[in-house]
């Protein structure tokens, strides 16, 4: 047979293709074992070769028992902006106060903000943090508006402080003044933002204790296509005061460039007008919403829970807080901001770097996996810290309460807890005694636990009486017929379906006990520590617990999130 150059080349290509497929198959086969094996065996090699590399591979302090499959055990933190989304046309505007700027901003600047090519920082005093300038957003407010308004007392006092603002504020113990002054910043911030950075598609406004998930935010604004920056759009977590809806400032909110342009360019007297209104209104985010509705006829579009006023330790995980992408969180202290940033950095997504041509059939799944969902925060940051119970702890359970009926205890209880008591005629025996102790309280959720699906045979088995038994051969035949009969199969399927529904629809996940008051929750939260009583009063202690089986059952019954539950209904 004559071997032509063409046939030889074809054989080489075929042989090369086989090698590539073999390598890919080998990778797919052994990759799971890589992810499961600890990296201790590699530390010796790392110690010998680390000096040859300019970047450090260090321990990921988030890695712990319970989230090994979610975060990397070791990580190179020297290139934090690798993979950060392109924010062209999107501007972050962060608001703070002189009394808190140096406490809150440095961590923001060390984490998310370091990857933004441009952003604005506004406060009630001009300051400098490293190379970053903080602009006084109230500098151009008319002096006549400031002079006779006691809400501006702090604005004048902090300019006279000869030491750090924190020292002066701590000495005066007048933290409420910062809140009173803050409400005047919102509308001037809109004007300064537009004057300094006009023409952006989207403007994200956030507080210094707000964390913004930029990968999700950019994906939502650009790829979901439910709205256009050329339309007047106002997005956030909707709250109400006096029947007026507004975007909660702490949760962050987003404005389209079209809305900000119209608001500032078409209404030059708006700031002066609302400075006068400020003396009679509580909050700046409320006044902003009032101005937008008055002059532009636009109301806030509800995008909760993606814009969220909670943080990982207070998020109510469970129904309604699971498959939704997370865009913002509020009340984040410096350590919490750093931890969430670290989680975003070290979340296991390295397998996504395989060539796209290999994974064309699963691109939609990869896209969904790339989106950080609320459930990911639970599994990565909260689940490893969940225990059966904790003393001196408040896990924020307050959906349904069972309080000692004694009038004295009822009087001591907070009003909102009294309002959430279950009616005595609707209580079962477990609930009637729940107030007596933490152990009694824990039984309320345990009472909702259901058998696992593999327990069907044990629960359904009935031992026959001797006089009902025929000979062993006949009995065996009967059992086999019953096991495989259509009616038995249907009963088994119906039982399994019923158990899954009960797990999915459970309403009690955790409890909190204090002062003869038992409260349970329809979600699961971590919470925060409480001070231990020093007088030995056992009723004054705080105790919290979690029904870990119930939580696991609900997660298993809910199943995987097939796709991110982006907020689409903006009514």
Structural account:
- By secondary structure, the chain is an alpha+beta fold.
- The chain has 2 domains: 80-385, Spore Coat Polysaccharide Biosynthesis Protein SpsA, Chain A (Alpha-Beta Complex), CATH 3.90.550; 389-450 and 504-558, no CATH class.
- Helix content is 41%, strand content 14%.
- The protein has 23 helices and 21 strands.
- The strands form 6 sheets. It has an 8-stranded mixed beta sheet. A 5-stranded antiparallel beta sheet has the order 15-21-18-19-17.
- Mean pLDDT is 85; it is low at 32-53, 350-369 and 462-484.
- Keywords: Membrane, Signal-anchor, Transmembrane, Transmembrane helix.
- This is Glycosyltransferase family 31 protein.
- Its main location: membrane.
Outline the biggest β-sheet: 8 strands, mixed
What is the CATH architecture term of the largest domain? Alpha-Beta Complex
Assigned CATH class of the largest domain: Alpha Beta
| Strand element count | 21
Structural class: alpha+beta
Helix content: 40-55%
What is the third-level CATH name, the topology of the largest domain? Answer: Spore Coat Polysaccharide Biosynthesis Protein SpsA, Chain A
